[in-house]
Write a structure and sequence with these properties.
Layout (H helix, E strand, L loop, with lengths): L1 H21 L4 H50 L2 H10 L18 H18 L1 H7 L5 H21 L2 H8 L17 H10 L5 H14 L1
Helix pairs in contact: 1-2, 1-8, 1-9, 2-7, 2-9, 3-7, 4-5, 8-9
Length: 215
């Protein structure tokens, strides 16, 4: 229960932060509006509304993230250039076998955390159970679990917005330069700084963030 409260807080904070970065709306007002809207459609529509909105939000999340990543990669000179800059900055660590639990990211900590996190979210999570219970057969629920896992693994492989942001600002830190006030505003700032001239793109990005955390 405690972890669920923390998770809900992060889910409401992340899109509100993105929205406040691209608009003049305060974070507190954004959180309040989002809470009211979500409570309303879930109360009125029930599980059916949750499932339908999940599908729409997932599609928007995929579209927004892919568009931002592709356009920024093109601006930098391609995926190879992004990879090279990240490698030169020592941002790529795949097989760090250090057994120390005090190292932030290692092969072992990622495997262990990934296993228990997936088990908690898919196997024991209230949100996953709510969706799986809405199908008519157990076999269908099992297939949905496998589809979900394949989708999550694909997202980890395809999306690397963090590396793109690092490559864009490898020679100029927006936080150190005073262009942003918080480190977690880097991605929204990237969208406004590099892609804000494209009509509708900042809105698509904010919708993608909302779709990603409200699924």
């Amino acid at each position: 229960m405690a972890s669920l409260f923390l998770y809900m807080g992060m889910c409401m904070y992340a899109p509100s932060l993105a929205l406040s970065t691209v608009t003049n709306l305060s974070t507190v007002a954004s959180i309040a509006i989002m809470g009211v809207v979500c409570t309303f459609y879930i109360t009125i529509g029930g599980v059916k509304a949750v499932v339908y909105t999940d599908v729409l939000q997932t599609l928007i999340m995929l579209a927004g993230t892919v568009v931002v990543t592709v356009l920024c990669c093109y601006d930098l000179g391609g995926v190879g250039e992004v990879w090279t800059i990240a490698d030169q900055g020592q941002r790529l660590q795949f097989f760090n076998l250090d057994p120390s639990p005090f190292v932030r990211h290692t092969f072992w900590s990622t495997i262990v955390l990934g296993f228990y996190n997936t088990l908690a979210v898919v196997g024991l999570g209230q949100a996953a159970f709510q969706r799986l219970a809405s199908v008519s057969h157990l076999s269908t629920a099992v297939r949905l679990c496998w589809v979900f896992l394949l989708g999550v693994w694909s997202l980890f492989i395809i999306f690397f917005c963090g590396l793109v942001a690092y490559a864009e600002y490898s020679e100029c830190d927006p936080l150190a330069a005073g262009l942003t006030t918080k480190a977690d505003q880097i991605i929204p700032f990237l969208v406004m700084d590099k892609l804000g001239h494209l009509p509708g793109l900042p809105g698509l990005f904010v919708a993608a963030v909302y779709g990603g955390v409200l699924r």
